[in-house]
Structures are given as structure tokens and as C-alpha cells.
Known about the structure:
heterodimer; A: mainly alpha; 11 helices; about 0% strand; B: mainly alpha; about 80% helix
Amino acid sequence: xxxxxxREIIDSVKRGNQADFSLLIDRYKHKAFSxxxxxxxxxxxxxxxxxxxxxxxxxxxxxxxxxAKFSTWFYRxxxxxxxxxxxGKKRKIEQEMSSIDEHFELGDxxxxxxxxxxxxxxxxxxxxxxLPIRYALVILLYYVxxxxxxxxxxxxxxxxxxxxxxxxxxxxxxxxxxxKHNYQEELL
Amino acid sequence: xxxxxxEILNKYLDGELTxxxxxxxxxxxxxNPDELTKLKTHKFVDQTxxxxxxxxxxxxxxxxxxxxxxxxxxLRKKKSYFYYSVLGVFxxxxxxxxxxxxxxxxxxTSVETLNIVDTEKISNLIIQFFTNFKSFFTGxxxxxxxxxxxxxxxxxxxxxxxxxxxxxKKLDSLTS
Lengths: 188, 176
């Protein structure tokens, strides 16, 4: 079967072939679910948010004009859907959506992860799970979804400069943690 | 350049260093093992993050979402199967009843009539057939036939009503 582009699938759905929307679902469900699980920390909430996101995308498809990539547009919906779900927990939102200028410290969480993991790679991946949401999302979208910083800034509704700062600061922090725990001997 | 700043390290990973900056970095790491360690650790972070995998969405999620988007389509399909199967059952019942009645009638005819070629006897046979056929529609037989016909009419009415509703819905969506 021909590998259709997002645009071709969307045009087909707009022409009345609603069943073709399932192709888009299959294409984006895993990455969107990863993003939601990272934000919501709960599989059931993430599943519900995933369904809501796709329904919103389907209902808004008529207004999608291909000005941006579908993935960027869709992940924006996913991000906003997750924010809506956790909106009730106002204190948590304020914590997670803290100023870009603020540095974060993992403290005891870092020590716990260091004790529980066996090698540098495991350690890094566990630490990423504990990063503040926006730092973790930038890493996920950049490294797993292969998005550019421009696209990431559109999804998260932040400036390009801030997206870059989040990415660089995450890398720097992870590097410093590896050096702190003397993982360099393992790496070299 | 004496040591590698965070900015330089990130520019190195993103391939944004100028030729001059790259030469300076090479000079620094050649002369300073700690800076080399710092660079290698920074590269390791980048490589590890590139190996991150996404989590799999729950099984069956595509179908769940499509069921919400197109509930009418799946429901209509199920209804068709139900109606056709009901029709099929009654079709079989009625066909069986008819076959039985024909068998019943032909068994009442004498064996001799099978060999008759005579025109008069053929017409007598036809009259006898219709008389017996008419007598079939009495008593219990009439009740059974009446019941079958009633159910067929009921199913047909549901079919017609459902078709009309779909047609009206399509018409409304076109005109709205």
C-alpha cells in the first residue's frame, strides 16, 4: 500500500473518506501517548487525553489549512488537552510552568535514581522522567519526535530562544549529573 | 579559548561551530584532559537521549477512537446483519411451509393421475389441486400462515422506517 503523506490523508478525509482518519491515528498515537503520559503521569488519564486529542483534531480538520505541519498542529492540541486536564491542580501547574529563567534541582530524587540504576544510560533516562514538564517535553519532541526547535516552540507556545534554552539547559544539567556521580570512567 | 563553555558544547553538538571555533575546541581538548572528559560526557548525553523510545499507546485505541468518530457506520452495519438474518429465518420457515403444503397436496392425489395423459383428467387434477390448496388455508394452517405474514410485514415496516430515517438525515445534512 502506498505510503500516503499526512496531507493526502487529510484531503481524503475532507473529501468524505472518514475512515482514512485511522491512518493518522496509527501514525501519531504512540508518540502522542508518550507525551501525554509524561505530562499526566498516569496511564488512564493519558489514554483519555489521547482519545480527546484525536477527536478534537478530527472535529477541527476542516479548519486545518496546512500552514504548519500536521504533526506540529496536532501536538499542540495534545499539549493543550493535557494542560486542560491538569488545570485543576493549579499549584502543580505553577510549579511545572515555572519561569524559563529558573534553574531546577532534583535533590533527593537524583540520589535515589543513582542508587537504583546500573549504568550511565539508565541513569540519564530515569532522570529525564523526573525533569520539570517543559524540559522533558522539549527533550521528547526533539529527540523522539525529531522535531525542530521552531516546531517545538509552536507546540509549546514559547519563543524559539526559550525552546533552545530549555534544550541546552537540560543537556547541561544531565552532563553535570553524570560528572558528579563519576560516570566519566564508564564513558571513557 | 581556555575551556569549553556550555554554549560551545551545545554549539558543537548542534553543528553550529565556525571553523575557527572548531579549531580552538580541538586545541583545548588536546591540552586539557578534563575538558576532553567534559566534551565526551556531553556527547554521551546527546547519544543517550537519541536512543530514547516512545511508549506504546494502549491496544485497540484506534478502533475506540474510530467508534466515537463514526458510530453511525458501525451501528448501521450491525442493524443490517440483524434484519437480514431475521428475514432469512422467516424465508426458510415460509419456504418450508410451502414445500410441506405442496407435498401434502400431491400426496392426496391418487397414483393413477401420474400416468394420465387425457386432457379431461388433467383439468380435473388442476381443479382438485386448487380445492385442496384452498382447504389448506383453514384452522391451524391459517394461523401459522397469518403469523408468518404478520412478522414479515413487521420486519419490512422496521426496514422501511430505518431507510426513511437515514434518507432524511442525509437530506438534512445536505441542506444545512
